Amino acid sequence: MKLVTFEVKTAVGPLERVGIWLDDGRIADANLVVADYLRSTGRSLYPQEEAQHRAPTRMIEFIRQGPLALDLVRQALDQALRVGKTTGPLGEVLVHAPDGVRLRAPIPRPHRVHDFMVVEEHVFNAMKTVPSEWYNMPVCYKGNPDAIIGPGDIVRWPRYTERLDYELELCAVVGRPGRDIARADAPSHIYGYTIFNDFSARDIQLREMSVGLGPFKGKDFATALGPCIVTADEFDPQTSVLVARVNGEEWSRGSIGAMRFSYPEIVEYLSNEEDIFPGDILGSGTVGRGCGLELDRWIQPGDVVELESEGIGVLSNPVGPRQSG
Which domains does the chain have, with CATH numbers? Predict the structure, then answer.
């Protein structure tokens, strides 16, 4: 199932909702479809109230409901599509046309952001060597959950950088909380996957990391997620082909299939003496030759950066103008 966060206009302003991205491009409102299903089948005396609990309108809360919410939404959506029902009894829109909503980042504000670095080709290309400890543990940096942008959002060019870069990555979304999770149990804690692009100010990043800390300002200004979360039962991150295009020209192509550490190993390591939570984002790190730093090619103001993954879709972001001052 492909889950999105979408925005609809209402009399009281825009509202964010959890949606199901259908094969024909339409967006089904998960909460309203469930409420209509509970009402029409007589399964609840208070269908809207029950739907708020069983199919919440915010993505992290929806994820917390786990497989039960997904199963209920599947049943409700199957019934609605079978009879062609797109509106409810009060005129509420159950299924939106693609141009009737705005897609946001699937998790507009993740619980936490960890971006790992597990593809050896990228490490070697970026650092010109591979540190020996890289082979022993999955290392990461902690990103800024308040700097998330989604499909179509403009990447604001930080005024302190001359070298803006993209990164071609996937990320896993944590679905179940846990601590000290064994590798064999880790897959049940992964809810799904989406595309991850941590835009990077390379010049300031390299200066920060030269002292043995960071990145900080080199990463914390914009991280794009989207366009949807594909549930783990429908997506294999190791076989999906990833492509990066700038203004329609292909710059990068690859996969994370050659991961030094698998996602179950990452979850095991991350949860060692530490809690993980629904809505945590676990970036894979960049595929080999998956960023401008490796290619010595740099995005410019006005460029449009597209990342594509088989099974997920295309995450497109225009780059804003340089900031002065």
Answer: 2-103 (no CATH), 112-318 (3.90.850.10)
